[in-house]
Specification:
Layout (H helix, E strand, L loop, with lengths): L1 E2 L25 H11 L2 H9 L5 H12 L7 E5 L5 H9 L4 E6 L9 E5 L7 H9 L5 E4 L1 E2 L6 H22 L5 E7 L5 H10 E7 L10 E9 L1 H10 L1
Parallel strand pairs: 2-3, 2-5, 3-4, 5-7
Antiparallel strand pairs: 1-6, 7-9, 8-9
Helix pairs in contact: 3-4, 6-7
EC number: 2.1.1.166
Protein name: Ribosomal RNA large subunit methyltransferase E
Keywords: Cytoplasm, Methyltransferase, rRNA processing, S-adenosyl-L-methionine, Transferase
Length: 238
């Protein structure tokens, strides 16, 4: 399980000189290209200037600007928290929100955030998250993505699998009116995931924030207005 360590971008901090990176003896051509892209990425520079751990922070900022889900949240679960950019944004936008995050990878401490270093796919993870949070969440957000293998369909299916697991967790734990945000890949959420979300939330939309790189296949699904179990059951009976 991994999340986008390269992060998101901001509307500010653009421009500046283009940096060229020479291929070193011990550095591959692909590594050189990645480094050059990072050095010339305005979102990376802005994240460094504003103290965010990754450019992914700006993806959440831009999604929130459009869908407004952070300020009203009181208890937040951050799935795939490492390196912590999304929780940093949540703390900045809504300092009173309680946050619990989880990731297989180590995440440096964030003030006001409880971090679990464990596999979200572990059967014990859901209960551990709720215990760490201290209540049911009203926002579950996931920037998780499976490690890519370079085959688009396989990568898509693996990430959708994580999104479905995250959605199931959200449906089982969210309070009525809550929201769910998750990364999916090109093609959006698959039919099974969309059906599940539409049964359980009043609105379900896809968005690609400007901070997502143009060549990236990632999209985000935003589900708001959780109906609660009784509400979902009523919809299914109609």
């Amino acid at each position: 399980m991994s999340n986008d360590k390269s992060g998101g971008g901001s509307k500010g901090g653009r421009g500046g000189l283009h940096v060229r990176v020479k291929t070193a003896r011990k550095r591959s051509v692909s590594s050189t290209r990645w480094l050059q892209r990072q050095l010339n990425d305005p979102y990376v520079r802005q994240a460094q200037a504003e103290g965010y751990r990754s450019r992914a922070a700006y993806k959440l900022i831009e999604l929130d600007e459009k869908f407004a889900f952070l300020k009203k949240a009181r208890a937040v679960v951050d799935l795939g928290i490492t390196p912590g950019g999304w929780s940093q944004v949540t703390r900045k936008v809504n300092p009173r929100a309680r946050i619990a995050g989880i990731d297989l990878l180590t995440c440096e401490p964030i003030e006001g955030v409880t971090i679990l270093e464990m596999d979200f796919m572990d059967d014990k993870a859901p209960d551990a998250l709720i215990e760490a949070l201290g209540s049911a969440p009203d926002l579950v957000m996931s920037d998780m993505a499976a490690n890519t293998v370079g085959h688009q369909q396989t990568d898509h299916l693996r990430t959708i699998g994580l999104a479905e697991t995250a959605a199931d967790f959200a449906i089982q734990t969210l309070v009525p009116g809550g929201a769910f945000i998750a990364k999916v890949f090109a093609g959006g959420a698959d039919r099974q995931l969309l059906t599940m979300l539409k049964h359980n939330f009043t609105t379900v939309k896809h968005a690609k924030p400007p901070a997502s790189r143009k060549g990236s296949p990632e999209l985000y699904v935003i589900a708001q207005g959780f109906k609660g179990r009784r509400g979902a059951e009523a919809v299914e009976k109609e």
